[in-house]
Structure formats: C-alpha cells, structure tokens
Specification:
mainly alpha; Hypothetical protein af1432; 3 domains; about 55% helix; about 0% strand; Diverse_Catalytic_Enzymes; PHydrolase_assoc_dom; hydrolase; Deoxyguanosinetriphosphate triphosphohydrolase-like protein
C-alpha cells in the first residue's frame, strides 16, 4: 500500500462525497432553528466544550493519579490530543472535521474518577442493576444529565454526533439483534427507543477516525508518561521492533540528545507513522468500497479507518507492553486498589444516606426511590466526580482515606 498524497486535503476545503454533510443532518431529538454562522456539527462541538463534564476531565485520571505530578496526562489532556489527531485524519480524508473533533471531545465524558479502576469498582457495585459502562454514561450525560438549556435536558446533539459517540468502536448489535460484545447497556437501549441510532450499522467515517485517534493518542502518551515515571525504560522499548527502529533513527540523527528531547522525537515519529498508516489503509478501503454517501460508509460491513496488518501487530505489542510494564506494575496496582476502595466506600455511604450527595439535583426525592433507581442516581453522582472531589468527600465521611501517592 502507498500513501496517495495527491488525494489528501491539507486545507479545510470541499468535503468528500462519503463525508457527513453538516447541512443535511438527520437532526436533533428536539428540533431547533439552525444557526446563520455555524453548521450543526460546529454547534455540537461548541456545546460539548462548554459542558461541566468537559471541565471535570481536567481532574480525572488517565493512568497516573494527578498527585503523582503535574506533567502526567489527565482525561482532559488525553481528550485534546485525541481531538487533534482526529481532526488531522479528517482533514486528510476530506471529512467533516467538526464532527470528528466533536466525537473525539465527548468520547470520555462517562469515565469515573480514577480511570478504569473507578469504572471497574462502580460496575461491580451496580452489577445487580445493570452495571456501569462509561460509553453508556457518556450518552446519559449528553442526553439527560447536563442541565444547561431551558427547553431540554442534555445537549440535544445531532443524530450524527450521538451515533458517533455510541458506535465509534463499531456496531453494538448484529443483524439478529444480539449484542456484538455482550448485552447492550440499558441506557443506550432506552435512548434508542425514542431516537434510533441504528446500532447494527457502522458509524460515520468521522467517528471511525475519532476511534482510531484514541488508540494512537494513548499508545503514544502512555509510553511518554511511562518513561517519565520510570516504569518504562528505553531498553524496554527496544523489545518492540517498530519503536526500536524509531530510536535508531533519532539516535543516528541526533547523537547524544538529552532524554526528554529524545523521547519527544520518538513520540512525534510514532504519531506520524500511525496517522499515515491509517490514512493509507482508509484510502485503499475507499477505493475498494467506492462509497457514494455517508450511508454507504455505514453499510460497508467493515471498518474503513483502521491500521494495516503490520501496524495492528505493532499496536498489540505496544498495548501488551503497557499492560505488563505500567498498568499492572505493583505500585500502580497498589494505588488502584486504594482508589477502588474510595469508590466502593462512597457508593455504600451514598446508598445508606443519599443526603451525603450534597448538591445533587434530586437529593430530596432519592431516599424514597426504589433500590434500582436510587443506585443509578448514586452511580451518576459518583461517575461525575473528579479524583480530587472524590478524595475530599471521602475525607469528610471517613476517618481514614487510602493513600493514592
């Protein structure tokens, strides 16, 4: 496969025929008058950026708890990096950049405090009531939990933005209606009952580039943060042929380069190589499928924006290294156990006395609710917490708060 540079749209210009058309959106659940100055997808992106949920991302863990240092990625900085890569991919493929960026910006809204640790703990607590899924929680936030507008709950995003949020990792159900990766979370089914997001089809190409941008971003910045933490070393990176090649290239061009600059030169080359690989694969797939519309992309039966076979192998090698060397490092596991204890303690405290959820919108009604409804409200409240707020509330309610340093 060869990258076709003449087909790339390096300037914001005419969209491809298979791109999502912001002037022909399927609309919003609650009809609104269009803007004279912004497309519907621009308005979606702007609404996402102005949410409380977006601001909370700055104090939510990516991998390393914020107390570990100011320079580690948070959910917010990760999200910004994903959005930048998604927009670059969208421009190269002549897609709608605003839709791709919006999906990237909203994709982690539903994450709990303390990263996947918090999600696992909350899922365990909510399992008798349907469990917890951060993607479904993102949908709840933008369709129900954000309370900003006079005429509706949530953000009233377009069908395309909501579809991209829910299906950016592929279809959720098979043609038979069965879940592709287990049961479809109930919040997604509930929403689709009133605003069908067509869970059996693939998402737009804009959502697909947002999804692969997520992989590119964390594969790169988790290595960067791992080197900064000392859990990774340059010698460990040499175990992966792709990274070893990048290190030889940088070392040969800049002998004796200081470690921080050496790291950055590797990371920027990694992002470039992965982005160009996705563009090349997407171009070849588009030539094969020849879609005449965004609908043809959804019905193509496969992902269009993805890695090549060789880069997929590298992607899996990097993920395995990160899992072994960082995510399951004994010190990280110690902190994860303590973070899980905080989430579990808070859940039990709120279920015992919902009044401890200070400033909750429905605080006066929750105590009298049936157990499943009360549990879901507690889950919403806990998922919305930042790391810092969860720690502060735990310190208020308990005599001892586990150490996260």
């Amino acid at each position: 496969m060869t990258l076709d540079r003449h087909a790339l749209g390096f300037g914001a210009g005419e969209r491809a025929i298979f791109a999502s058309d912001p002037w022909a959106s399927r609309g919003r659940l609650f009809p609104e008058t269009g803007s004279l100055t912004r497309s519907d997808f621009q308005r979606d992106r702007d609404r996402i950026v102005h949410t409380t949920a977006f601001r909370r991302l700055k104090h939510k863990t990516q991998v390393f708890i914020a107390a570990d240092g100011d320079h580690y990625r948070t959910r917010l900085t990760h999200t910004i990096e994903v959005a930048q890569i998604a927009r670059a991919l969208a421009r190269a493929l002549k897609l709608d950049e605003d839709l791709a960026e919006g999906v990237a910006l909203v994709h982690d809204f539903g994450h709990t405090p303390f990263g996947h640790t918090g999600e696992d703990a909350l899922h365990e607590m909510l399992e008798p009531y349907g469990g917890f899924d951060h993607n479904a929680q993102s949908l709840r936030i933008v369709t129900k939990l954000e309370r900003r507008y006079a005429e509706f709950d949530g953000l009233n995003l377009t069908w395309e933005s909501l579809e991209g949020l829910v299906k950016h990792n592929g279809p959720l159900v098979a043609a038979s209606g069965e879940g592709m990766r287990g049961p479809v979370p109930q919040p997604i089914l509930d929403y689709c009952a009133v605003h069908d997001l067509e869970l059996a089809s693939f998402a737009s190409l804009e959502a697909q580039v947002a999804a692969i941008a997520d992989d590119i971003a964390y594969n790169t910045h988790d290595i960067d943060d791992g080197l900064r933490s000392g859990y990774l070393t340059f010698e460990m990176l040499e175990e992966i042929p792709f990274l070893a090649g990048l290190m030889r290239e940088v070392g040969g061009r800049y002998p004796g380069l200081e470690a921080s600059r050496f790291t950055h030169e590797i990371m920027r080359r990694q992002i470039t190589a992965m982005v160009e690989d996705v563009i090349t694969v997407a171009q070849d797939n588009l030539k094969d499928i020849r879609p005449d519309s965004a609908a043809d992309v959804r019905n193509a039966g496969r992902v269009i924006a993805t890695f090549s076979g060789d880069m997929s192998k590298t992607d899996q090698q990097i993920k395995k290294m990160l899992m072994t060397r960082i995510y399951r490092h004994p010190e990280v596991m110690r902190v994860r156990a303590n973070a899980a204890q905080i989430v579990t303690d808070l859940y039990n405290a709120f279920m015992a006395d919902p009044r401890e959820m200070q400033k909750h919108y429905w605080i006066d009604q929750i105590a009298g609710m049936a157990e499943p409804a009360k549990a879901r409200h507690v889950g919403d409240y806990l998922a919305g917490m930042t790391d810092t707020y969860a720690i502060a509330v735990h310190q208020r309610l308990f005599d001892h708060t586990p150490d996260l340093r």
